[in-house]
Design goal:
It is built from three helices and eleven strands, in the order βββββααββββαββ. By secondary structure, it is α+β, with helices and mostly antiparallel strands. The radius of gyration is 23 Å and the shape is flat. The chain has a three-stranded antiparallel sheet with strand order 1-3-4, with helices on one face. A two-stranded antiparallel sheet has the order 2-5. The protein starts with 6 loop residues before the first strand and ends in a 13-residue tail after the last strand. The longest helix is centred in the middle third of the chain and has 33 residues.
């Protein structure tokens, strides 16, 4: 079985009512994505409720209250990693029905970007037909993704200066690094 690496973690790891796990899988060839359902982390939610209850019942600053609140949050944090890994494994099983691994480049691609008869992605298929030069780097395109000017080679677009070799881009809002195909920043939600 393949181990998919084409996902982003959208989980909320706080010990709060919004605590839970969710993953977004993406095709490494196009911009199609698939998100798992949100799996609430009940222990984290329960720890938050317990903590708030203790705060109101015992009052702020009570040694017993503070120790119990910290203990409940600590227990929640310990279980969080295992719960996340369990949900990721289940999500992987579902994603493996939606993505295939190219036999040549080993990238995970969606059904539209995969030639099932040859067992390769459309990029490797185009490379085999000579439509993409053999020396052109993976992820590089025949035309600029920014201005669609046909590329004559080189790292930068001759028309607009776009970095053709980049696989990631920086969010203009918070400077987080995102895959080039990302439509939103996973750190601040900025739309590209």
């Amino acid at each position: 079985p393949m181990t998919l690496q084409n996902y982003r973690d959208l989980s909320d790891y706080s010990n709060d009512m919004e605590a839970g796990f969710q993953f977004e899988f993406f095709c490494t060839n196009c911009d199609r994505t698939w998100q798992t359902e949100f799996k609430p982390y009940r222990l984290g939610q329960a720890a938050r409720i317990f903590s708030q209850l203790l705060y109101f019942v015992r009052g702020a600053g009570s040694d017993v209250s503070d120790q119990a609140r910290f203990a409940s949050m600590g227990a929640s944090d310990v279980g969080m990693r295992g719960a996340r890994d369990k949900w990721l494994a289940k999500s992987m099983e579902q994603a493996e029905t939606l993505y295939a691994e190219c036999a040549q480049c080993r990238k995970a691609v969606c059904a539209d970007c995969y030639n099932t008869s040859q067992g390769i992605c459309v990029t490797c298929e185009a490379r085999a037909r000579g439509e993409i030069p053999a020396g052109q780097a993976d992820g590089a395109v025949a035309s600029c993704p920014n201005c669609q000017t046909p590329s004559s080679g080189g790292r930068f677009c001759a028309e607009c200066g776009f970095d053709m070799a980049s696989t990631h881009k920086s969010c203009p809002s918070c400077s987080a690094m995102m895959p080039r195909q990302a439509r939103f920043c996973t750190d601040c939600g900025h739309s590209f």
